[in-house]
Amino acid sequence: MISMSATRYVALAAILSLALAVQASAPAFAQEKPATEVTAKVDKIFAQLDLPNSPGCALGVIKDGKFVYRRGYGMASLEYDIPLSSESVFYIGSTSKQFVSASILLAAEQGHLSLDDDIRRHMPEIPDYGETITIRHLIHHTSGLRDYLTLWSLAGENIEDIHSADDALQMIARQKALNFGPGDEYLYSNSGYLLLSVIVERATGKSLREFSEENIFEPLGMEHTHFHDDHTHPIKNRAIGHFRSSDGSIALNMSNFSQVGSGGVYTSVDDLFLWDRNFYDNQLGEGGLIERMLVRGVLNDGDTLSYAAALQVGEYKGLRTVAHGGALGGYRAQLLRFPDQRFSVICLCNVAPTNPTGFARQVAEIYLSDQLQDREAPTEAAAAEPVAAVESFKPDGARLAEYAGEYYSEELDVTWRFFVEDDSLCMAEGPDTPFAPTVKDGFRRGGLVLSFIRGDGGQVVAVKVDAGRVRGIGFARRDG
User: Fold this and answer.
1) Buried/exposed code over 153-182 (b: 16+ C-beta within 10 A; e: otherwise)
2) Residues 244, 26: Cα–Cα separation, whole Å
3) DSSP letter string, 141-158
4) Taking the mean position of all CA atoms in its chain, how far away is CA 260?
5) How confident is the model at residue 21 (pLDDT cuts 50, 70, 90)?
6) Which among 413, 406, 407, 328 is positioned nearest to 155, based on CA atoms?
7) How many beta carbons lie within 10 A of that of residue 183, not counting itself?
8) Other C-beta atoms within 10 Å of 480: how many?
9) Which of 133, 146, 116 is nearest to 182 (CA)?
10) pLDDT class for 23, splitting at 50, 70, 90?
11) What CA–CA distance (Å, rounded) separates 275 from 215?
12) Residues in CB range of 136: below 8 A, 6 or more apart
């Protein structure tokens, strides 16, 4: 029989042993400063969101495969007074793309496809543009394919409405030209990743949701993560998306978007922790998955991109980073890694506008303050390139009337109508803001650039439209 004093001795020894074990496993930076001091600085970053009447963000800070801090700031649901936590499930937008590229690489490893396959082998409905577009081009955004979300926007569609995967595929397949030749340039295109999801399904016989579940999420124990390919599917612990207006008022900002590939993943900080840990100790496939995901794209001229397989390889204040953000509706996301320090920050938010990338960097600056370098602005400005003189283009009302009329795009299956009001060129579709003249027969409104085309007789017969991720969409004039 053990005496009372012996029992106390055993208990005390156990407590001391546990304390020593915790101290030995604690990260070096956590020992340098009291945890309360560090976390207080982190909490201050999110103070404006950490309110009972505000949506906000969930944060996870990871070092050497362990959480050093995690918590929620603000509310997952204002309607039901549910606070955010590391278990809250968020839509992560384009941060989803790394799970698409991982699925493609695993499907290739299993022999279902090759990254050098012509995509028309799997999707013959995509037009033959005279040059081969490979799966590898899709992964690195070098295919030249026009971005389907921008195409939908130009066609007057609300991308957050209900659309089928076939709707998106048909829009892509209607395009008669590419933005540029495959491999010639890098231009971020959601079309490429939507097509990757189609290729996974056709090559493996399983939907992207099924394939990723079987090959990524289940093996890693990511029980609350899935590709959301059915907008009616209920999601436990979902954080509700919101929008904050300039006057401070908050409204719900949810959507019925159910396209996967370009986005589509719902997940939590706790689940992304498991994915981040796999970055350093891969448990998926036969080996080498992470190394393949870090292979950066190369252009036809030999230039190497910073974009790998849905991972942006870069640098922040002297330290190497691997990251990808995402956004849609009332959701914003960032998974930022400092691989050499085995340090990561996960920041998931359920209110727009919010900057989780900025938040993640501020958090990293607290924990890695002794390793990050201050970047001073150059003391001498680089010499500006000479700008060629451009003929002044200031058309009056009579001249503007030449451009007024209806124009139809077969690729978008939509008609635009231009009219003149108060000596300005306006468009019936979209914002009321008029177009500003730029060069002869050219106009701009924000990121939308119009180049009107004249026929042999000098009359305006068409207009070409550039809109960021979409170049050279043609509209033919329909009226006299």
Assistant:
1) bbeebebeeebebeebbebbebbeebbbeb
2) 39
3) T-S-PPPHHHHHHHTT--
4) 12
5) very low
6) 413
7) 21
8) 5
9) 133
10) very low
11) 12
12) 115, 116, 297
Residue found by looking up tokens 């801090």 in the block: 69
With a pLDDT cut of 90, the percent of the chain lying above it is 79
271: amino acid identity, one letter: D
Which residues make Cβ contacts (< 8 Å) with residue 10, sequence separation at least 6? 2
Q: Distance (Å, rounded) from C-alpha 356 to C-alpha 364? A: 12
| C-alpha atoms less than 13 angstroms from C-alpha of 365 in its C-beta half-sphere | 12
Is 290 in contact with 282 (CB distance < 8 Å)?
yes
CA pair distance 359, 356, nearest whole angstrom: 5
- State the DSSP code for 445: E
Q: Which two tokens stand for residue 353?
A: 């506008």
Q: Under DSSP, is residue 274 helix (H, G, I), strand (E, B) or coil?
A: helix
> Which residue is it, tokens 């960097």?
361
Look at the alpha carbons of 162, 166, 171, 172 in this order and tell me if their dihedral is positive or negative. Answer: positive
| Chain segment 66-112, per-residue pLDDT in tens | 999 999 999 999 999 999 999 999 999 999 999 999 999 999 999 99
Neighbours of 301 (CB within 10 A): 8
From the list 147, 148, 188, the residue with the least C-alpha distance to 168 is 148
Token pair of 354 as six digits: 């919010």
| pTM of the shown model | 0.88
Cα(84)–Cα(75) distance, rounded to whole angstroms? 5
For residue 318, give every residue at least 6 positions away whose Cβ sits within 8 Å of its Cβ, in sequence order, or none.
371, 372, 373, 375
